[in-house]
Design goal:
Length: 203
Amino acid sequence: MAVVGHAAASIVCRRPRLTTAADRVTLTRAVLVACCAAATVPALFSGTGPGMPVVVLGAVAFLLDAVDGAVARRFACVSPAGARLDVQTDAALVLVLSCAAIPVVGPWVLAIGLMWYAFVAAGWIRPELKRMLPVKRLRKVIGAFQPFALLVALTPGVPGGIGVSSVVLALVTLGASFGRDIVELERGHRKLTGRRSRTELVN
């Protein structure tokens, strides 16, 4: 419910208060993520894998991630608010799938689901990390690989070695991606600070 509530709140807080076709696709994804979370909780308490319901719901939510962007471009309704809603829904899906994978892979898999939230929290302490980054295809590919790898590990019948290997690869690539972004943001901040210092000296 927290996933759906947060998504709905992001719409209600907009000015003007309206939704686009792409937003409605993303909100559908948020509902699917909430359903995944509801199916995951009993599995966590029982210590068993969540089974096919979570895999099916998660796969649909994962595939719809490609749809909302296409709809936004098709109907010319791309917006920063819609992009934020999309990213937040992506992060929620990865977190829920990470929780679902705990009985299958182990608690360390939560590092994947919590990494985006840790990055956001770090931005509260160091505002430089809140700056916009240039769009990079590799970042998108790595982001899309996270739910895919988790779904592979969660799919009944997939050999444990393949599932664990896919999740390990997802964690390594995600950590490298965030690390690169942090370095890029810090370098950009130092360059900006250096230019300001030189300007102040000249003036």
